[in-house]
Design brief:
With 487 residues, the protein is of the alpha/beta class. The protein contains 15 helices and 20 strands. The model has no long low-confidence stretch (mean pLDDT 97).
């Protein structure tokens, strides 16, 4: 069904991509990819494992020896060609994403453009990898610094943004002169394979960009982290898995960059523009059905405006239309799996059992087992799991605070530190609270904070390193100092 709807059916690939070739297992072992809106099987994809991962690493290492020497301008041109192809096939890529991930088609189109923006940005940054001439201690020496590609990169990406989470890693790696072995989530491999097809069309040499699809994530991940030819691991996913990968990578002292779990608070003070705060919290909470790491996980509202915020926010949430992501009428799609729905149900039930009240929603959707109603909960407290745990679903828990000091303490009372947001007109408070929040990113009177030009990443147990911006390239480069004597 999906293939029939694509303008270019050849973008639907079901094999791994290694050393410029589409690869199946010898037994043609495959796993099913489901459409979470309908439960239908979209495709059967090659279930590769450790052996194929080793082949991909070998191919990437062999390709690295030549790719690292390709002039920056040539790497830039190839990346630009890849960007153009992605944007020319935006509608097909969006359809593939909605079929395998479930998000509404408008969001999928937006993600393709957002993902492509990283390819464009790093195509430009590839030509701006600068070194330095340092002051020398003696007159007969010159000290200089150059930056060189790290080497083979192992990338592991999640299902919630199956396009953008890939381009945020692959584009800077290729721009820096690295080669890459990508392990996409088994729930959403089709977007990754379509990107690989377009990269191949753009002209990247064989072995530079490899994709290993498979369900044995532990074994594939273990090979990536233990193989000495892999010099860097980049991962987006849960903190639990991130810690395992970091521990495994330590044995060969790999560079790592980790974008891990979040527990984003939105602090809404009594002097805020309430209309803007409602809209901002709405977007931050319910984008991709609440399945993003920077979603508003806790909405903290000052007591004097609490009731009015609840009233306005609930009214806006009531306008959502739950349904198949391909329907133009749908404004929210399903969750990725039944297990995800069960996790959301558990968190909501825990809160209600401890005194939280449901303002709207609170139930599995009538559309099917993968859907959960957009939900608003009030009267929450610190004893509830929603105060501590990340809810990957369309549930907005609204907490109450009294003072600025209390709001900051509530916001920081978590091991996570990815993104936080606040709404206030007080410029003194903006500085005080903005500096006090223990987060890598802070949105002030704004929740749409992400772009290819900003450093995306967190502190504490939300990870290390940054993606996007000029800082995003540094994680794929090593600094080499060279001392020239006898001048």
């Amino acid at each position: 069904m999906l293939q029939q709807q694509l303008k270019d059916p050849s973008l639907l690939k079901c094999a791994g991509f290694i050393n410029g070739q589409w690869v199946q297992t010898k037994t043609e072992k495959a796993f099913e990819v489901f459409n979470p809106s309908t439960g239908d099987v979209v495709a059967n994809v090659a279930d590769l494992g450790v052996k194929e991962t080793q082949l991909a690493i070998d191919a990437a290492q062999a390709a690295f020896e030549k790719w690292r020497e390709v002039p920056a301008k040539q790497r830039s041109s190839l990346l630009r060609r890849w960007f153009d192809l992605v944007m020319a096939n935006q509608e097909d890529l969006a359809l593939i994403m909605t079929f395998e991930q479930g998000k509404v088609i408008a969001e999928s189109r937006g993600e393709v453009a957002y993902g492509a923006s990283y390819i464009e940005w790093f195509a430009e940054e590839a030509k701006r990898i600068y070194g330095d001439i340092l002051p020398s201690t003696t007159s007969d020496r010159r000290s200089l610094v150059i930056k060189q590609a790290v080497g083979v990169v192992g990338a592991i990406t999640p299902w919630n943004f199956p396009n953008a989470m890939i381009t945020r890693k692959v584009a800077p790696a290729l721009a820096a002169g690295c080669t890459i072995v990508l392990k996409p989530a088994s729930e959403t491999p089709l977007s990754a394979l379509a990107l690989a097809e377009l990269a191949d069309r753009a002209g990247f040499p064989a072995g530079v960009f490899n994709v290993v699809t498979g369900t044995d994530s532990k074994s594939i991940g273990a090979e990536l982290t233990s193989n000495p030819d892999v010099k860097k691991i980049t991962f987006t996913g849960s903190t639990v898995v991130g810690k395992i990968l970091m521990e495994q990578s330590a044995k060969t002292v790999k560079k790592t960059s980790m974008e891990l779990g979040g527990n984003a608070p939105v602090l809404i003070f009594e002097d805020a523009d309430l209309d803007k705060a409602v809209e901002g919290a709405l977007v931050a909470k319910f984008r991709n059905a609440g399945q993003t790491c920077i979603c508003a996980n806790r909405i903290l509202v000052q007591d004097s405006i609490y009731e009015e915020f609840i009233r306005r926010f609930t009214a806006r949430v009531s306008e959502f239309v739950l349904g198949d992501g391909l329907s133009s009428e749908s404004t929210m799609g399903p969750l990725i799996t039944k297990k995800a729905v069960a996790g959301v149900v558990s968190l909501v039930n825990d809160a209600v059992s401890l005194g939280a009240k449901v303002c709207i929603g609170g139930n599995v959707g009538s559309n099917g087992d993968y859907f959960f109603e957009p939900t608003v909960l009030r009267d929450l407290n610190a004893s509830m799991r929603l105060a501590k745990e990340e809810v990957f679903g369309p549930v907005a828990p609204v907490f109450k605070f009294g003072s600025e000091k209390e709001a900051v303490a509530m916001a920081n009372d978590t091991e996570f530190g990815l993104a936080a947001y606040m709404y206030t007109k007080d410029h003194g408070r903006i500085w005080r609270v903005g500096e006090a929040l223990e987060y890598g990113m802070v949105g002030i009177n704004e929740t749409a904070i992400s772009s290819e030009m900003i450093p995306f990443g967190g502190v504490k147990e939300s990870g290390q390193g940054r993606e996007g911006s000029k800082y995003g390239l540094e994680d794929y480069l090593e600094i080499k100092y060279m001392c020239m004597g006898d001048i």
